From TrEMBL:
Protein name (record): ATP phosphoribosyltransferase
CDD domains per record: PBP2_HisGs (cd13595)
Record's function text: Catalyzes the condensation of ATP and 5-phosphoribose 1-diphosphate to form N'-(5'-phosphoribosyl)-ATP (PR-ATP). Has a crucial role in the pathway because the rate of histidine biosynthesis seems to be controlled primarily by regulation of HisG enzymatic activity.
Record flagged with keyword Glycosyltransferase: yes
Domain of life: Bacteria
Amino acid sequence: MALNIALTKGRLEISSLDLFEKAGFNCSFRNNKGRKLIFKDLDNDISYFLVKANDAITYVEHGVADLAVVGKDSLLESSSNYYELLDLNIGKCKFILAGLKDNNIFSNSGHIKIATKYPKVAKGYFKTKNMDVEIIKIEGSVEIAPLIGLCNGIVDIMETGTTLKENGLIVLDEILNISARLIANRASFNLKQKEIVNFLERISSIC
Ligand code: PRP
């Protein structure tokens, strides 16, 4: 049976396809993909969908994708209605708390505001610190929020640290190391067990 695999567009797409190629899958479509969003590896009967991380989870939960490659950051914010099969050891980064040098997050007894794309993770982190803070959900480019006065700090992911540095922010605390995971639709895992296990074995042998 054919496998449908959702890939997270962007940085993770490149490292996912590098990994799949290393495992011997035919990803030659990547050389000439233009703006297309669906690709086929006819040799292995696999279709790839290029989508945003949260949508990759939705496609898996609804069973139109059997598998997906998604960052643990997005998985931690989701409802977990899937199987997490494998740590792919790609897309490695960490959750951090960051702010301006003269921030007052831990010293201030007043109202603290934190902007983030990851409200669940941020809430969980401040709970462990026994701190009651206001979490403000932002969709992207979160580093700008403390610079223009929206918040005292941000909870975000950091890979190279360049975005923080170029915006004059510093890491105040490291929260959690994360990486990309292979997830599976629960029904597909039974119905297409042979194909999924075969895929899993080829990938896990190199990651
Ligand atoms: C992520 C993250 C940071 C940046 C960190 O954003 O939210 O902004 O990458 O990477 P760095 O440490 O290598 O600089 P992304 O590029 O996904 O864009 P977004 O902010 O629009 O979501």
